[in-house]
Design brief:
Elements: H1 4-10, E1 15-20, H2 28-34, E2 42-45, H3 51-54, H4 64-76, E3 79-86, H5 93-96, H6 102-119, E4 126-131, H7 144-149, H8 152-164, E5 169-174, H9 182-197, E6 203-206, E7 209-211, H10 219-227, E8 232-243, H11 248-267, E9 271-276, H12 286-289, E10 293-294, H13 307-315
Helix pairs in contact: 6-8, 11-13
Bound molecules: (3S,4R)-3-hydroxy-2-oxopiperidin-4-yl beta-D-xylopyranoside.
Amino acid sequence: SAQLNTAAKAAGKLYFGTAVDNGDLSDSTYKSILGNGVDFGQVTAANSMKWDATEPSRGSFTFTNGDVIANLAKSNGQLLRGHNCVWYNQLPSWVSSGGFSASTLQSVITTHCSTVVGHYKGQVYSWDVVNEPFNDDGTWRTDVFYNTLNTSYVATALNAAKSADSSTKLYINDYNLEYTGSKATAMESLVSSLKSAGTPIDGIGLQGHFIVGQVSTSLQSVLNTFVGLGVEVAITELDIRTTVPASTATLAQQSTDYQNVIAACKAVSKCVGVTVWDFTDKYSWVPNTFSGQGAACPWDASYNKKPAYQGILNGF
Ligand code: XIL
């Protein structure tokens, strides 16, 4: 029977992938599904390439855990997505409350992005260089980067990443871009102005954190709008959560929801791939973040394939 990455490739996509957190790799069942050669053609480090993990204090870089993910991807023959360079969250306090001048913060960003991207030079298909720059209403998130540098931090980060690895694809990634509306429009304007200014930008990542029964019906339209700017797109963090425990009917709806997301990506040739934000309910981030919710992944917590697995295959 068909498998996820095999089906994605048969549909003309580059990959079907998953987030992986370092701690999960001590689970041999987890590791063997991840590396079975047919379901996952791509991995993203769930945490270990983030700023707090890679530069916990200024100028002091640690890549031990990130390297574990990169090396595993290599030995499994999987593409790697880098996640991420600049984000307001999981940002060490020396940055978030550093009180840096504009010129100092600019150089902190340049050093961080060029060092991290440079460390993985040649190993990363695409990098989420900037993560979650917008509020849901399409205004800029007023984090330390925006407050100190206005919108210029985006180009600073992209330029630093480009000079560190000229062949990796540079993405901006966010959630709630999957619906036509203010936030998607804000991303469209940003990428369009970066393009006009000649700033390197190759892709837009749509995270895809959905709720069962509420998957966007305008996803394909947004993907087409973004692709029309001259960039590629990807679904970078797909999961579809629900109140737990999930009923049989809910799991059937979830399967349809997965199918619809995949079908939207399939229909847009420059939608290069889909990544789930972990493949098993055992390690999903959802229950820790959304109280009372979970069951968001295609495998359950005991590694049984849920109806969602077949939904993904149907979508491709
Ligand atoms: C999540 C991780 O999965 C969790 O382990 C961590 O505690 C918090 O971050 N959007 C993103 C991801 O871009 O980096 C987040 O990952 C999930 C939401």
